[in-house]
Design brief:
The chain is α+β, with helices and mostly antiparallel strands. 47% of the residues lie in helices and 14% in strands. The structure holds adenosine-5'-diphosphate and magnesium ion (MG). Magnesium ion (MG) binds next to loops.
């Protein structure tokens, strides 16, 4: 099997010669652009709306809309769209032209404040989990001022994209943005309460910052086009590993191949144009696997940016005769792809709350906020785990490449020791040989100079001034993981604030809170190798949940504790949580259903005919050889082995089909997803086992599609 020569050359990129500094943000209606183009008072209003201090008025929206329109049209835009995040996990857009007929055959290009702040897409075809029936299809999109508008350029022309939140006619959240924004508000409220008790009088708002590291694979488009499984499911449901996998570890951080370099260059340019600060790029562990990481931003903008990063990877890849694979596990036997969600909390006046700092006050603040995260991660481990529960990510979690399904926090030796000492009522820590810091009359152990140990196996690692949540899957929207994190930490900070506000001696209270909280929740802290079997046992002894199945993990969404948590912080209602639960279960079932369908189809229509005719050609060879009295033992033996395996493949396929029909008939969403997880998945593995065994013994050119060798090593 070879690639059709010449059709997959990359490099025909019309790169602008514009210097990067000029190019950067040229298609982004950023605050810098607004500052330049808007009247001063209007720009100030927008800043206040972004900071959550004011509501947006129609008057202000009118001025911004006119300015946005002129800016976009000046750059060739013909359309605008409210760009949003429905519960499909993807983004959605419906383009409207700016044109408005004048009545005499001409047109004006118009865009009103109303059109900027509110859209009314027909919401009936997006998943709503029963929140909205088709007869009441109306939903609204509302401008999210915290994420900048941008221009998208493709074959449809240039479109002004306005990031929006999507809600039903009755105000329920139908997307991933609404709860995210609400969770940021909730966290901000509680964090500010805590900061006030610590004597902070200047910060007005706390927001979360996020920097996602995006992993992906690239494969040659010619090979991709010959793999219906990749086309239809994003992953290979068949494929024997070639003699070489990733064991030499020669790809990680290796020199970037020319064709990939060309792709990366254009990817960076495209991202920079829309104001996404793409910063780091490198080869990842698996062959043909790569990573791109932008500089972090506020979570809302970071969520939008990450969706654009994924979309741009795919778009640019196609222009280079490549296909970008964002699936969590495109290939069995080599690493899958994740998305490290680097998360921190910052104040509007520039303070990173997870920055240990150098003076006693910032040390105490750091320890308090860090303790809050430990407590939140321990108490809401199931919820946080569930934010990564998808059928695709299930291939990674618990396997030997991604963090296990057990949530634990890594702090590194020195910090853990300090927190342990506080929990035990001791001061000091080995790292600073018993040094202490005074806060008021009480003292806390001094923090070591360098707190940023490294641990690559932890699902939730402290990395110096941020936490890195590593369970997130590569194709996922990061909105949900961040929403759940925010609301969990908001709850704990709220409880801390209650205690602090009531305390007469704040310093003593700080120490007591850290002490009590950490003593109770330090069982979630683990600094060792998370990929080891011992950890699984140890975690069990500690009573930490280990929910391997995505379907089981999702159940936490409808538990009463979860409902109370989300309702207390006004992030999601019981009804909204239930609808999400159903949507995610359904999505799980649908995805496995498609994969199983593709497995059956490929086994029957591609592999079986190919191997049968190959076996019979071997048998014919054997007969012909016998006819001339030559030795034919090898031909006969191989023909029989292949024919036997083909028979087994046929049988396993039939079994899978029967199981699939049964699963399809299950009414209850949970029971159905369970069946897909426990019956269909193993059934697919059995079919695959036979097919992969066949692939290893059938002639290369008799195999019906390109194999792992082409997909993973040829670029
Ligand atoms: P590491 O080596 O720990 O992975 P990097 O500097 O490579 O750290 O950063 C990885 C990602 O973390 C980048 O996207 C970076 O912008 C992001 N990041 C750095 N600081 C913060 C922060 N305070 N909040 C959120 N993300 C951050
Ligand atoms: Mg990292």
């Amino acid at each position: 099997m070879s690639c059709c020569e010449g059709c997959c050359r990359g490099g025909e990129v019309d790169f602008t010669e514009t210097p990067v500094a000029e190019l950067y943000g040229s298609n982004c209606f950023s605050n810098a652009v607004m500052r330049e183009r808007l009247p001063k008072n209007i720009y100030k209003e927008i800043l206040a709306v972004q900071a959550g201090e004011k509501e947006l008025t129609l008057e202000v929206a009118e001025v911004v809309a006119a300015s946005m329109r002129d800016w976009a049209i000046g750059k060739g835009a013909s359309h605008y769209t409210h760009w949003f995040h429905p519960l499909t996990g993807l983004t959605a857009e419906k383009h409207d032209a700016f044109i408005s007929p004048t009545g005499d055959g001409g047109v004006l290009l118009e865009f009103s404040g109303k059109e900027l702040i509110k859209g009314e897409p027909d919401a009936s075809s997006f998943p709503s989990g029963g929140l909205r029936a088709t007869f009441e299809a109306r939903g609204y999109t509302a401008w999210d001022v915290t994420s900048p508008a941008f221009l998208k350029q493709d074959k449809t022309g240039t479109t002004l994209c306005i990031p929006t939140a999507f809600i039903s006619y009755y105000g329920q959240a139908l997307d991933k943005k609404v709860p995210l924004l609400k969770s940021i508000d909730a966290l901000s409220q509680q964090a500010i309460r805590v900061l006030r008790t610590l004597g902070n009088t200047t910060s007005k708002r706390v927001f979360t910052t996020v920097g996602p590291e995006q992993e992906y694979f690239l494969v040659d488009k010619c090979f991709y086009d010959q793999r219906p499984d990749l086309i239809l499911t994003g992953r290979t449901v068949f494929g024997a590993l070639p003699a070489k996998g990733q064991e030499l570890e020669d790809h990680y951080f290796g020199a970037i191949k020319e064709r990939v370099a060309d792709f990366m260059r254009e990817l960076n340019y495209e991202l920079w144009k829309v104001g996404i600060p793409a910063k780091t790029q490198h080869n990842e562990v698996a062959p043909n696997q790569f990573e791109i990481a932008p500089i972090y931003a506020n979570s809302s903008a970071a969520v939008d940016a990450n969706q654009l990063v994924m979309e741009t990877i795919r778009g640019v890849a196609r222009r280079h005769g490549l296909e970008g694979l964002l699936h969590e596990k495109p290939f069995a036997g080599v690493n899958g792809s994740g998305k490290h969600n680097n998360w921190s909390m910052a104040t509007d006046d520039g303070l990173n709350l997870f920055d240990p700092g150098e003076d006693p006050a910032s040390n105490a603040r750091f320890l308090l906020f860090a303790a809050a995260v430990v407590e939140a991660v321990d108490r809401y481990a199931l919820l946080i785990r569930s934010s990564t529960a998808t059928s695709a990510n299930e291939h990674r979690l618990g396997a030997n490449e991604a963090p296990p399904a057990i949530i634990s926090v890594f702090f590194g030796g020195p910090l853990t020791e300090i927190l342990d000492n506080i929990a035990e009522g001791k001061t000091g820590g080995k790292a600073e040989s018993g040094a202490t810091i005074k806060i008021g009359v009480t003292s806390l152990p001094a923090l070591p100079k360098d707190v940023s140990d490294r641990n690559r196996t932890s699902p939730f690692a402290f990395t110096g001034n941020k936490f890195e949540f590593r369970m997130v899957g590569s194709s996922q929207s990061i909105a949900t993981p961040n929403t759940y994190l925010n609301v969990s930490v908001a709850q704990v900070l709220g409880e801390f604030a209650d205690k602090l506000e009531a305390a007469s001696n704040k310093h003593e209270a700080i120490q007591n809170i850290i002490k009590e909280s950490y003593a109770k929740h330090r069982k979630v802290v683990f600094n060792g190798n998370n990929y080891s079997d011992e950890w699984v046992l140890e975690a069990e002894r500690r009573g930490l949940p280990n929910v391997r199945s995505a379907v089981d993990a999702l159940q936490v969404l409808i538990r009463s504790e979860t409902v109370s948590l989300f309702e207390a912080h006004k992030v999601l209602t019981k009804e909204e949580l239930e609808s999400r639960y159903h949507i995610y279960l359904e999505k799980y079932s649908k995805q496995v259903n498609i994969e199983a369908g593709v497995t059956i189809d490929l086994a029957r229509r591609y592999i079986f005919p190919a191997v049968s005719s190959y076996a019979s050609s071997l048998a014919q060879d054997a007969a012909a050889l016998a006819g001339i009295g030559a030795s034919n033992a090898a031909q006969s033996k191989r023909a029989k082995r292949i024919a036997d395996l083909a028979g087994e493949l046929f049988e396993e396929t039939a079994k899978l089909e029967t199981a699939l029909t049964e699963a399809q008939g299950i009414e209850d969403a949970f029971a159905q997803a369970k069946a897909y997880c426990e019956k269909i998945r193993p059934g697919m593995d059995s079919v695959r086992g036979k097919a992969d065994a066949l692939e290893k013994i059938v002639a290369k050119d008799a195999w019906p599609f390109p194999g792992y060798e082409e997909l993973l090593f040829k670029l």
